[in-house]
């Protein structure tokens, strides 16, 4: 890989990371919010590295880093790089010759800048078993607001574990995207949650009754009451909702957490 | 090497144009070459369209998202690791390590294992650091122990484990002990059976050469190591994304019945999923159908062996090493976690 290509790769990589983390919310499609400062720092670092390399390359010309002087130091390192693996001349000497494998870095870099894939959605959610909800012993009384905003996890936990049956008869509002059921015509209100990056994605689903399914991946806010079945407050109760209204919303910025809605994504 | 690249790039249009003009007089009634020259350009449109449509299939989109997510998530840690490794190479004199570590390699191994606790972050950072430790004269056995233990026993990972398994501190303890044991056993195993020639020759070099500016050397080494490891990271991320998308989690339940099979199965799953070590506890917690020992195996194997790590190790230490080392680590990790999981959980 030639020096100008390396400079291009480093600069584009830096710009890509900054674009995804500093100027837009793109990075939230792929990694957790907590990584953002590290991504911004990494982007800046790559950019600086690329610019430094460009600047020093112009000043130095073709004297090959001035490494010529220590060929007599008895290491025989010049020979290692050329034998076997193509061009891997390592050990702090001919660093301008980066192995060809580095070309692969252009794929994620360009993809991040120009062709960013969308957040994980209905395709992934439909193929995965829903995330197990945590055991919870004590439940605080629900606020009196109506309709009451709730997360999908909270709702599932309340329905299956709250022996006080506090959700009974309450009007509840939840947001998520549409995942059509492969068997039959029903659909699930879904959120994909990850704890670090999209590779560890898990999903929470609530079955919705009473309203026809919108296209997959549509973000909606659903208001309704618990769909009766089994015994409320035990494992036999289904995490399901009888929908009264379903309205389309803009994809929220915190799409990968199961939190109450904040702001639409940039 | 870079010359062949540019030559190949130049060759492509060079081949295409004569082919088109050669077909011209033979195939068409009109001997005008220009419509045939337009041919590839016109064809390129639909091909590109088909390619974009294929890339926008839900499965391909999910694959691209997961692949990009793994790369983006790992990049800061890879940068941190290469920066540390570059700094060790250029600024830390070799005598520091010989003073800190016990002289005898057998004793240096467990010390290096415990020292893994100081490098916070995920596994991508530890590969370049271990590489630079070897270059600074640390015995490879100790460096490999550090490589294995650092991503598994650092405070960030242990805290995440405690959060993911509330109310079962035994799981955190079991993870700590099993990871340390695996790392130490692998170090001793290297002392016993390891051969220097499995390592790529470059690894055996020392870092700073007199006569160079340390800063320039640091910067160039950093840049080289990052680009090099980054390429391998992309390979690993692609492989991991393929399994991540192709293996639906719902098939897992079929294996959860048998205790022995489930340990092996989750160990294999940890290898192909390549979940970051800070997050794998949450994934393990969600595999509720499996026994605690199987989930422990998932968390012990994951930070030590997975597809992106194998790719990174192959790039840094050479393929001969990566294959042997990963296979041995998997076996040792499964044994250690079964043993410790059987006692503690």
From TrEMBL, chain A:
InterPro entries linked: DUF1980, DUF1980_C
Membrane spanning residue stretches: 39-55, 101-120
UniProt region (Disordered), positions on chain: 58-94
Compositional bias ranges of the Basic and acidic residues kind: 59-94
Keyword Aminoacyl-tRNA synthetase included in the entry's annotation: no
UniProt keyword annotations, A-Z: Membrane, Transmembrane, Transmembrane helix
The DUF1980 domain, residue ranges: 166-256
Keyword Hydrolase carried by entry: no
NCBIfam families, A to Z: TIGR03943 family putative permease subunit
Annotated protein name in UniProt: TIGR03943 family protein
Naturally occurring in which organism (per UniProt): Streptomyces glomeratus
Highest classification ranks of the organism: Bacteria, Bacillati, Actinomycetota, Actinomycetes, Kitasatosporales
Automatic annotation (TrEMBL), chain B:
Renumbered residue ranges of the record's region Disordered: 1-24
The entry's keywords: Cell membrane, Membrane, Transmembrane, Transmembrane helix
Matches recorded under InterPro entries: DUF318, UPF0718
UniProt topology in membrane: Multi-pass membrane protein
Parts of the chain that traverse the membrane: 34-54, 66-88, 108-130, 142-166, 172-193, 226-247, 259-284, 296-315, 321-344
Bias (Basic and acidic residues): 1-10
Biased amino acid composition, Low complexity: 11-22
Cellular compartments annotated: Cell membrane
Pfam families: ArsP_1
PANTHER family given in the database record: UPF0718 PROTEIN YCGR
Protein family (similarity comment): Belongs to the UPF0718 family.
Official protein name in the record: Permease
Organism this protein belongs to: Streptomyces glomeratus
């Amino acid at each position: 890989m030639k020096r100008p290509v390396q400079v291009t790769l480093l600069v584009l990589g830096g710009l890509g990371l900054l674009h995804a983390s500093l100027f837009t919310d793109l990075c939230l499609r792929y990694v957790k919010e907590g990584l953002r400062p590290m991504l911004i720092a990494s982007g800046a670092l790559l950019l600086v590295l690329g610019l430094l390399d460009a600047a020093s390359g112009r000043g130095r010309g073709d004297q090959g880093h001035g490494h010529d002087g220590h060929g007599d130091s008895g290491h025989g390192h010049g020979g290692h790089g050329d034998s076997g693996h193509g061009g891997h001349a390592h050990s702090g000497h001919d660093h301008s010759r980066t192995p060809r494998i580095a070309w692969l870095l252009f794929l994620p870099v360009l993809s991040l800048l120009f062709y960013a894939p969308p957040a994980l959605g209905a395709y992934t959610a439909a193929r995965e078993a829903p995330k197990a909800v945590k055991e919870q012993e004590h439940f605080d009384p629900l606020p009196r607001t109506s309709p009451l905003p709730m997360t999908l996890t909270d709702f599932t936990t309340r329905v299956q574990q709250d022996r006080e049956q506090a959700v009974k008869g309450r009007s509840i509002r939840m947001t998520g995207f549409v995942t059509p059921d492969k068997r039959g015509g029903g659909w699930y209100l879904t959120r994909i949650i990850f704890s670090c990056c999209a590779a560890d994605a898990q999903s929470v689903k609530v079955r919705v009754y009473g309203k026809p399914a919108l296209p997959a991946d549509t973000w909606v806010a659903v208001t309704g009451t618990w769909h009766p079945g089994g015994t409320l407050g035990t494992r036999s109760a289904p995490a399901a909702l009888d929908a009264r209204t379903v309205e389309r919303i803009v994809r929220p910025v915190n799409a990968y957490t199961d939190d109450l809605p904040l702001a639409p994504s940039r | 090497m870079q010359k062949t690249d540019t030559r190949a790039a130049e060759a492509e249009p060079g081949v295409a144009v004569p082919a088109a003009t050669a077909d011209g007089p033979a195939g068409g009634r009109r001997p005008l070459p220009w419509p045939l020259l337009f041919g590839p350009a016109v064809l390129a449109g639909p091909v590109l369209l088909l390619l974009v449509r294929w890339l926008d299939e839900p499965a391909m989109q999910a694959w691209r998202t997961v692949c990009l997510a793994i790369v983006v998530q790992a990049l800061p840690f890879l940068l941190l690791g290469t920066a540390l490794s570059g700094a060790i190479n250029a600024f830390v004199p070799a005598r520091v390590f010989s003073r800190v570590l016990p002289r005898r390699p057998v004793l240096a191994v467990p010390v290096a294992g415990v020292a893994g606790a100081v490098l916070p972050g995920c596994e991508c950072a530890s590969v370049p650091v271990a590489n630079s430790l070897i270059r600074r004269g640390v015995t490879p056995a100790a460096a490999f122990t550090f490589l294995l233990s650092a991503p598994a026993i650092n405070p960030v990972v242990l805290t995440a484990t405690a959060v993911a398994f509330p109310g079962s501190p035994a799981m955190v303890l079991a993870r700590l002990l099993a990871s340390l044991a695996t790392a130490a056993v692998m170090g001793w195993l290297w002392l016993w059976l390891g051969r220097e020639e499995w390592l790529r020759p470059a690894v055996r070099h020392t870092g700073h050469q007199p006569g160079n500016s340390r800063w320039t050397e640091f910067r160039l080494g950093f840049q080289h190591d990052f680009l090099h490891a980054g390429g391998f990271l992309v390979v690993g991320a692609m492989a991991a994304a393929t399994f991540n998308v192709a293996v639906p989690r719902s098939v897992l339940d079929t294996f959860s019945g048998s205790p022995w099979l489930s340990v092996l199965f989750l160990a294999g799953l940890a290898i192909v999923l390549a979940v970051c070590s800070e997050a794998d506890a949450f994934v393990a917690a969600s595999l509720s159908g499996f026994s605690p020992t199987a989930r422990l195996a998932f968390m012990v194997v994951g930070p030590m062996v997975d597809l992106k790590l194998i790719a990174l190790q192959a790039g840094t230490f050479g393929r001969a090493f990566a294959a042997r080392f990963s296979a041995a680590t998997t076996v040792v990790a499964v044994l250690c976690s079964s043993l410790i999981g059987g006692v503690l959980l």
